[in-house]
Each structure stands twice: as C-alpha cells, then as structure tokens.
Amino acid sequence: MATTGSREGLDDTMSGSAGGSVNNVSTWQGGSCEESGEETETERQDKSVKVCEECAKQFSCLSAMKTHMRIHTGEKPYRCDECGKKFSRLENLTTHMRTHTGEKPYRCEECSRQFTELGTLKRHMRTHTGEKPYRCEECSRQFTELGTLKKHMRIHTGEKPYRCEDCGRQFSQLDNLKTHMRLHTGEKP
User: Fold this and answer.
1) Is residue 143 one of the residues assigned to a domain?
2) CA distances from 67 to 12, 13, 73, 89, 129 (A)
3) CA-CA distance, 160 to 54, in Å (whole number)?
4) What is the spatial distance between Cα 167 and Cα 179, in angstroms, rounded to a whole number?
5) Burial state string for 71-92 with b = 16 or more CB within 10 A and e = fewer than 16
6) What is the DSSP letter of 28?
7) Among residues 51, 63, 58, 62, which one has the least CA distance to residue 90?
8) Could you read off the pLDDT of 84-108 as tens digits, one per residue?
9) What is the pLDDT of residues 112-147, one digit of tens each?
10) pTM for this one?
C-alpha cells in the first residue's frame, strides 16, 4: 500500500475503499461530501481513503479531511458578525447565530419546550422516556447524560479537579467550590 502527498496540500491518500477498512482501521463515516455539496467532480471519482498525518483518522473525501485538520491547526475561518466569535465549522456558526436571533427550531412534542440544537432536544426527551443510557461500572447507578456520569465517577476515583485559589482546598464538584468561595468573599447565598 502506497502513501503519497504532502502535509501542506492535505492530499495524502492511501488506496482502499471509502467507508470500509484499511489495515483493519475503519474509515470515517461522518456524513457524505455529496450531501454537503463540498465534493468536487475530481473527489467523486477519487475513491481512495485520505489519512490525517496528525492523528491517523481516515476520511472518504478530501473536503472532510480539510475540515478535520482545523482541529490540529486551530484555524477558525467562520466569524460571527454580531460578537466576533470564530468557528472552525460553518454548522457551528449557524448554531451559534441562534443565540443572537433567539431561533429555537427544535420543539419537544411532549411539553412544547423548544431548543436551538437537535442534540439538546434528544437529551431532553430522556426526561419524558426515563431512558438512562449511561451506567456506572462501579455501582451500577444509571444517568441520562454522560457528563453526569463523569461527575459521579469522581466519588469512586476521589478526583478533585476544582481548587480554591485562596486556601488550596479541593473539590470534586464546581458548585461545591463556588459555595466554598463565599466563605472567603463573605457573599451570602
């Protein structure tokens, strides 16, 4: 199997079938370039797998890999005209713009609550279905969100990532640190 191309051109390619596997490494399947309208005629004909030199992720089209490379380069070509915040992906700017417009296109059929992102609506739906897909391997407790499980795991690991800058005391939860900080500032709850 031959590898050709240069880092600057982002056209490193490996022969293989898009969407399959190359050397037992499955190729990336996150959306097609045809759907995004970003695939050129040359790319439609080129069915080789593109490989990121930084992390070895594989892509079926060059434009998807170029977008991915922004993770490594830090490039953020899309800028919000309202607040100046920059984004590496156009979709992220589009979603961000809803914070300025107030648009909430995703509506819960159960309670009519509206959301700016589809993923947030899907997580919200678990409050109605009772689904708890994240399970603690230590104690079998289940959670509706991955972030909540990660916070819970600190009970078992003893990790305390939040540190008071004034006295050095450490906390497993950010809210506990914020409450503690009131001792130093004299702020009342």
Assistant:
1) yes
2) 14, 16, 10, 7, 36
3) 32
4) 14
5) eeeeeeebeeeeeeeebbeeee
6) P
7) 63
8) 999 999 999 999 999 999 999 999 9
9) 999 999 999 999 999 999 999 999 999 999 999 999
10) 0.56
Identify whether 150 is part of a domain.
Answer: yes
Task: Report DSSP state, residue 117.
Answer: S
- pLDDT at residue 47 is higher than 60: yes
CATH of the domain at 182: 3.30.160.60
Q: Residue 29 and residue 25: Cα distance in Å, rounded?
A: 12
pLDDT at 44: 56
Tokens of 141: 């407790």
Quickly list H helices, 109-145.
118-129
Q: How far apart are the first and last CA of the chain?
A: 65
Domain count, the chain: 1
